[in-house]
Amino acid sequence: MHCVIIGYTLRDPGPRLLFDYETVRSAPHEVPARNINPYLVDAPDVLLPSRTKAPAGRPQLKKGSQPTDGGNLILTDAERLELVAREPGAKRWIKRFGGGEELLNGGWRWCLWLKGIKPGELRSMPTVAARVAAVKAARLKSPTAEVRQAALTPTVFTQDRQPSRRYLALPEVSSEARRVIPMRFLPPSIIASNKLQIVVSANLVHLGVLSSTMHMAWVRCVAGRLKSDYSYAPSVYNNFPWPTPTDAQRAKIEATAQGILDARAAHPGATLADLYDPLAMPPNLVAAHAANDRAVDAAYGQPRGFTTEAARLAFLFERYQALAAPLDVAPAPRRRPRRAG
Q1: Domain span at residue 147?
Q2: Which H or E element spans position 322?
Q3: Whole-prediction pTM
Q4: Alpha carbons 178 and 278: distance in angstroms, whole number
Q5: Claim to verify: residue 201 and residue 77 sit in the same structural domain
Q6: Dihedrals φ, ψ of 266, to 5°?
Q7: How many domains does the chain fold into?
Q8: Same domain, yes or no, for 142 and 179?
Q9: What is the chain's alpha carbon radius of gyration, rounded to the nearest angstrom?
Q10: Quick one: 171 and 277 in the same domain?
Q11: Is position 331 within any domain?
Q12: pLDDT by residue (tens digit) across 234-244?
């Protein structure tokens, strides 16, 4: 349980103090503040809206696909092998599938991805057809009208957001103990579940910025929590004040992001959970992230970085206010011209 106690007063409180902790078990130290905003940061008073769309020029982040199938479209390794042994024709309709657990720890599951299957082919596979019938029965029992309506199309997921090209995937929930939220590029042949956040058309610059200390400072401050773990949502991404790098700075971030991927590749067989364990993170990966942090900080015009996370957050909120706040202002309503006479 987390408890925050905030005091209110009608007068100027005089000197303002924030209390910073190196870890949750460390003793606090006082940090004088000019202003304490709603996020308990020495920065301007801003409230982040729940933006559902990414800023112009930024690829959209969204959840993966939602099966709502009663478990009948999802297969374990054993179930897949048994199904293919019974009905070899089903093999072409089975794809790898998973969410945050599989992304971090490996061991992808499988799913029946029957999008586009012809009625005759489905009828020729009784075992697959029985699973589809079970999907329909499960949806009809739902208290949600939209899910009951989806019983009319039991061969497909209730929400299909699967990209047709490579995408960047990050877990919806990630441990607060990790320095960064682990993420990786996935091919379109892997079906992303609703427990993954995905960025379609993402490139190395997006990977570099989202894997940076700058982005993680923002996450730690504004993301939701599940217990103490980070719960990443589109509004975290959509409100994040991105840098505006020069061509040279962009090329540098591309190089350092590729360096992160190369450092991971030097440890074949290691999962993302292995690589980003706070005690077991390999030195070459630590160094790759440090180089990436320097490149991202430089793109923000801060080549020397920041001495504290509080200073980093103050910078980000000031940047947010300067760049993003105008988007929160609704346009004035247009008046209809009056008729003459």
Answers
A1: 66-152
A2: helix 309-323
A3: 0.84
A4: 6
A5: no
A6: -75, -5
A7: 3
A8: no
A9: 24
A10: yes
A11: no
A12: 999 999 999 99
Residue 210 token pair: 């989202």
The answer to whether 312 and 306 are in contact (CB under 8 A) is yes
Q: Are residues 315 and 171 in the same domain?
A: yes
What letter represents residue 222's amino acid?
A: V
Query: Using H for helix, E for strand and C for coil, what is the string for 216-246?
Result: HHHHHHHCEEECCEEECCHHHHHHCCCCCCC
With residue 57 as reference, give the H or E element that holds it.
Answer: none
Q: Coil, strand or helix: which one is 254?
A: helix
Residue 56 resides in a domain: no
Write out the H or E segment, with its range, that includes residue 275.
Answer: helix 272-275
| Digit-coded pLDDT (tens) for 16-63 | 777 777 666 778 877 777 777 777 777 777 777 777 788 888 999 999
Task: Starting at the earlier edge strand, list the strands of the sheet with 224-226.
Answer: 173-174, 229-231, 224-226
Instruction: Tell me, yes or no, whether 290 and 249 share the same domain.
Output: yes
Give the distance between the most distant pair of CA atoms in the chain: 83
Both tokens of 13, joined, read 């409180």
| Residue 330 domain-assigned (yes or no) | no
**Is residue 3 a part of any domain in this protein?**
no
**For 223, phi and psi rounded to 5 degrees?**
-75, 155
Q: 17: which strand partners?
A: 32
Within 41-120, strands assigned E span: 61-63, 74-75, 94-98, 109-112
Other Cβ atoms less than 10 A from the Cβ of 134: the count is: 16
- CB count within 10 Å of CB 338 equals 6
> How far is the C-alpha of 136 from the C-alpha of 147, rounded, in Å?
10
Here the tokens at position 305 are 């970085």
